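Reviewers of the previous submission asked for a worked example of the structure-prediction workflow described in the proposal, so we include one complete record here. The input consisted solely of the amino acid sequence. No template or homolog information was supplied to the procedure at any stage.
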Amino acid sequence: MGAISSYCIITYSEVRFSMTNTQYALLLLRRGLRQRCPVCGRGKIFKGWIKTYERCPACNFAFEREPGYYTGAIAVNLVVSEFLIAVIAVPLAASQSVSLTVLIVLGCTLPFLFPLLFYRPTKSLWMSFDHFIHPVSSERV
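From that input alone, the workflow returned the following structure tokens.
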């Protein structure tokens, strides 16, 4: 596993320092959207629907950098979910053509459905954003 880690660090350093900040941000965005390791881009972050690997299967990077690391991802998930619920619910509630039953069904399902749908993307994009702001160093892998 050590040889793979060294390889990923070298690749990461070479890639990071040969790119502009915009190119690097786009690379991390692609890795986040693909739900791949922000360091090497090869290892998967999730091993199930919700369960994450503790370390990257390809480069052995520890995903959770510190206790409470994913709190920001949870907050972003909550804000995005609630914003979309408001964008959907307010116009429907203002419209008199939608029945009360439909509003109740939407009001009971969307607050549970959206956070589950956005869990994986917000978690992987949070890791990519964090790696853009706080790049990994070779001693932290």
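The longest helix spans residues 100-133. We consider this example representative of the routine output the project will generate in years two and three.
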